[in-house]
Design a protein that fits this description.
The chain has 121 residues and is mostly helical. Helices cover 90% and strands 0% of the residues. The protein has 1 helix and no strands. It has one helix at residues 2-110. It starts with a helix and ends in an 11-residue tail after the last helix. Residues 1-7 have low confidence and may be disordered. Belongs to the CAVIN family. It holds the Pfam family PTRF_SDPR. Keywords: Cytoplasm, Membrane. It is found in: Cytoplasm; Membrane, Caveola.
Length: 121
């Protein structure tokens, strides 16, 4: 019976040692995976920081561009207003020129030549 117990104890010890080796291998694999995951986490954090910095730069550039566009639009509105004013003045001047031409044609037709002096008030 001692033999049986001795063999059983030896077999149990071998089984326990094999089991412990397997557990140690699993733990090593887990640690290796954890190390790789930590490295990947650091890479991801660095990527996120880079993206955040790029977004901040983009936001600043967008704000500057928006401000410039607003200024250009305001200048465009002013120029458009001035162009409308100039157009009205030119049209009025054209009307006056046509009236003068008509008057001149009438005078020439009547053969009455008079000197017309125009004085701006």
């Amino acid at each position: 019976m001692a033999n049986k117990l001795g063999l059983a104890v030896g077999d149990d010890t071998t089984s326990i040692m094999a089991l412990l080796e397997r557990v140690a291998g699993i733990i090593d694999n887990v640690q290796t995976c954890q190390t790789r995951m930590e490295e990947r986490q650091l890479e991801l954090e660095n990527s996120v920081k880079t993206i955040q910095e790029d977004v901040v730069k983009l936001t600043v550039n967008h704000a500057a561009t928006s401000s410039t566009v607003d200024k250009l639009l305001e200048k465009t509105r002013k120029v458009s207003c001035h162009i409308k004013d100039v157009r009205v003045r030119v049209e009025n001047q054209n009307i006056r020129v046509k009236k003068v031409e008509i008057t001149q044609e009438e005078l020439l037709a009547k053969n009455k030549f008079r000197v017309v002096i125009y004085q701006d008030e």
